[in-house]
Specification:
Chain lengths: 508, 318
């Protein structure tokens, strides 16, 4: 397999390509806002790349930018899912091909349309790219079909229905179908507004008491898409951590029902005044399911690492040491816990205190809290993906520890600081006295994010350098392209057919 | 141990960033040459409204102050109003009567009943209007800076006292943008030489010091060079200064179901996307902040031509 085939056809190569493209996009476009403006960096970028930044089109540009990044993140998750969930090889190949062509088209032409003038051919090709991603999602949902008997569990340690139907597969299926419907919400509303280019950001509608159905659909779309991306990565991480047993059996029904209820709740925002009740109930299901994964994985990490560290009967401190021994295994679930402090908890707190606190603040400050809320969620998901990637890339020794801890500590410092910054009026009501807190939190956020970005750049730099080697890591990954995991079902055992499935028979 | 020392060092470094700030510290007086008592006429006619530049029209001429109301103007008003007893002082706050608003009992709606409401908390830091020996006065150097820490009630009371009013959102938007599609009142580009906004901190702090970014005098950005700092004339097409940046400006509109009061213009704490002529902000009518001020509008009273009745009758008869 040559380098091109590795990067564009193998699971590990495809993930590397998508992460690299997102990293390049982020590196370029982050120079257009915030302090980069007063440092003069934006002017350099705009001049150097010949961008056309019409102020009236800022909202539209931001929407396109988010979508191009989101498509790549969805693609990364698709690659992971088509590798860890048993399916036929041709299904995996077709899905990966479509999503790859789709997200790259959406990224290239979406950015070209948004930042380099209005060539409507570019806009059309951006839509073609997104359509391909959507179609790959349709194929993915079909491939996840949990009613196919060959995918019934063969190991009763995994959550299953009485018939033997795999509950985890059902959770993947429900998530995929919910994501397709939710994408449709965005597509319908996008068609309505984008055709007339009357774009707007959802955070600018928050205090409008007369939102139209289509405006509500937009707000629902963005919330549920990020939620489902989080559900998806939770399921994938669960597979990576070999989630099974009692906790798995408790978690999966909650994940299935939670995903259905939260999705239904969000869709019903358009017509129902009680939508938030369903959203809260669904959230509890999904979050409880994630809690089961956290408990299971931490127990497992303590157990496995205690053996590795030579603790026979570990005391509490030894258990703690064993838990955090491998940051790349501990990190993803820790980030899920941390998410409660900076995202879920804040969201619930805001909803409860809406009238007492937040509606008294200026809209622009409430807006900062809202945008911070989902930027942090998206960024936490990104760190989970990066830690997962570093794990499968096989980083070892000190590099593994450094990468993992910088990723965890850097992101947590940054996001905790951003949360405090956005809620500063809670702690210091008078703006005149907030400057000290603002300085410190901004500095900490810059420090944390800087550390995160430098570490990611080093990882990607290493992988780039490796590609120039004739016998580099890429060669080994090309020979062994699938993600190492245990699978919940064994279609080879069920059907007695080899070489047809992505898992080569599955490992249990 | 080494790790602990390193950790302590990092913590102390970050903690030291959190220094106290004194917003009311003296600032040099700057004469901008702009008269805050001046008004500009905004003619009736069509204009483009909002980010999507929808066609709109105002069918009457009106006037707006060419600058925000200054600390000196507001403190003079407070002295006059106090003498006429249209305001009162309660625990370091200026208070005044407001007749209340219709209540729709909508979700999240506040009920605003008739009663006394806060106009200005003049003892709070950030407020440059002070009371000395029973008279309102202004922090030295801030006389021609825009008044801040004034609630919507306080802004309305000022306007009403002199027979003016607060502008509506549409009146404000037309005054800021004129009849073309510009993004900022002065054109389509923004930088630290155009206005006092989130990216001007470094330049202005170098000139005027202070640990915190602050207001600039009204009409400061008028093409004058202060020391080595060149400013660009930021007047809108109708000659209004600071319609983008410096301080947010309270507006008069009261929309049904909510009682937020809207603001336009952005402020010295905001990045450029808040300075766009279509950017909006809002808060409760009793909210005040170091970056919120206002300016007034007034109707143009056209004098009717005096025509003698007999003459008219004769003309008709002819």
């Amino acid at each position: 397999m040559n380098r091109f085939n590795y990067l564009f056809t193998s699971t590990k190569g495809l993930i590397l390509t998508a992460i690299s493209l997102v990293a390049i996009e982020t590196a370029i476009f982050q120079t257009l806002s915030g302090p980069m403006v007063e440092w003069g960096i934006r002017d350099l970028t705009v001049k150097w790349l010949g961008m056309d930044l019409n102020p009236a089109e800022r909202a539209g540009r931001i929407i396109m930018l988010y979508h191009t990044i989101a498509m790549a993140i969805v693609a990364i998750e698709v690659y992971m899912m088509t590798s860890v969930v048993p399916m036929r090889k041709h299904e995996q190949k077709n899905i990966n091909l479509l999503v790859t062509v789709g997200y790259i088209m959406a990224m290239v032409f979406g950015l070209a349309f948004a930042y380099w003038g209005h060539n409507f051919a570019f806009h059309g090709l951006f839509l073609v790219g997104q359509s391909l991603v959507f179609f790959s999602g349709v194929l993915l949902a079909i491939a996840f079909n949990p009613w196919k008997k060959e995918y019934y569990v063969t190991n009763k340690d995994y959550a299953h229905f009485k018939s033997g139907m795999d509950m985890e597969r059902m959770a993947f299926f429900v998530m995929a179908v919910a994501m397709l419907i939710s994408a449709g919400y965005g597509a319908v509303t996008g068609s309505f507004w984008a055709n007339g280019h009357e774009t707007f950001l959802a955070e600018d509608l928050i205090r409008d008491p007369n939102k139209t159905h289509l405006q509500k659909a937009i707000v629902g779309h963005l919330h549920i898409m990020v939620t489902l991306v989080a559900v998806s990565i939770t399921l994938v991480v669960g597979r990576r951590l070999e989630f099974k047993g009692l906790f798995h059996k408790i978690a999966m029904p909650f994940m299935i029902v939670g995903t259905m209820v939260i999705s239904g709740g969000v869709w019903s925002v358009v017509w129902s005044p009680n939508a938030h009740t369903f959203i809260y109930i669904g959230s509890i299901g999904v979050m409880f399911s994630a809690l089961m994964l956290v408990i299971y994985s931490w127990k497992k990490l303590i157990h496995d690492n205690s053996i590795e560290l030579g603790y026979d009967k570990p005391n509490i401190f030894q258990k703690l040491k064993a838990l955090v021994h491998d940051p790349l295994k501990f990190g993803p679930t820790w980030q899920m816990v941390f998410m409660n402090f900076t995202v879920s908890g804040i969201g619930i707190f805001m909803a409860i205190k809406l009238e007492d606190i937040f509606r008294v603040w200026p809209a622009r400050e409430e807006r900062i809290t809202l945008t911070g809320h989902w930027h942090i969620l998206a960024a936490l998901i990104a760190t989970i993906i990066l830690m997962y990637y570093a794990d499968i890339a096989g980083i070892k020794g000190k590099a593994r520890k450094w990468f993992g801890w910088v990723m965890i500590i850097g992101s947590d410092i940054a996001f905790a600081s951003m949360t405090i910054y956005s809620m500063k009026r809670l702690f210091i009501p008078q703006e005149v006295a907030q400057q000290g807190l603002m300085n410190t939190t901004m500095l900490l956020a810059d420090f944390g994010l800087g550390a995160l970005l430098v570490t990611t750049a080093i990882l990607l730099g290493w992988r780039l350098f490796d590609l120039f080697k004739g016998d580099g890591v890429w060669k080994k990954e090309a020979a062994d392209p699938e993600l190492k995991t245990t699978r919940t079902s064994n279609p080879v055992l069920n059907l007695k057919k080899e070489n047809e499935f992505n898992s080569e028979g599955g490992e249990q | 141990m080494k790790k602990l020392i390193y950790l302590a060092f990092v913590l102390v470094t970050f903690a030291s960033c959190s220094t106290a700030v004194i917003i009311n510290e003296e600032t040099p007086s700057v004469d901008t040459g702009v008269n805050p008592d001046s008004w500009a006429v905004i003619p009736a006619g069509p204009f483009y409204y909002g980010m999507h530049a929808l066609p709109e029209s105002i069918d009457y001429d009106y006037e707006m102050m060419i600058t925000d109301v200054t600390n000196l103007q507001y403190s003079n008003y407070l002295n006059e109003a106090l003498a006429k007893e249209t305001i009162s002082i309660v625990d370091g706050n200026v208070m005044g009567f407001y007749p209340g608003e219709p209540f729709d009992n909508y979700k999240h709606e506040w009920e605003i009943k008739a009663g006394d409401y806060l106009h200005m908390p003049f003892t709070e830091p950030g407020c440059h209007v002070k009371m000395l020996d029973g008279k309102f006065t202004v922090d030295k150097g801030f006389e021609n800076h825009p008044v801040v820490m004034v609630t919507w009630y306080g802004a309305r009371a000022y306007a009403q006292f002199y027979g003016y009013r607060l502008p509506t959102e549409k009146e404000w938007a037309k005054a800021a943008r004129g009849t073309d599609l510009r993004a900022y009142p002065w054109g389509d580009e923004i930088n630290e030489h155009c206005t006092n906004y989130g990216s001007s901190h470094n330049a202005l702090q170098r000139l005027y010091g202070g640990n915190i970014s602050r207001t600039t005098p009204v009409g400061y950005f008028n093409g004058t060079t202060y020391e080595d700092f060149e400013t660009i004339d930021n007047r809108s097409p109708y000659g209004l200064y600071d319609m983008g940046g410096n301080v947010w400006q309270w507006l008069s509109d009261d929309y049904s179901k909510v009682h937020y009061r809207y603001m336009r213009g952005g402020s010295f704490t905001n990045y450029e996307y808040n300075i766009f002529v279509w950017a909006r902000n809002d808060a409760g009518a009793d909210f005040y902040n170091i970056n919120i001020g206002f300016r007034c509008a007034r109707d143009i009273v056209k004098e009717e031509p005096v025509v003698e009745e007999t003459e008219t009758t004769e003309e008709v008869a002819e």
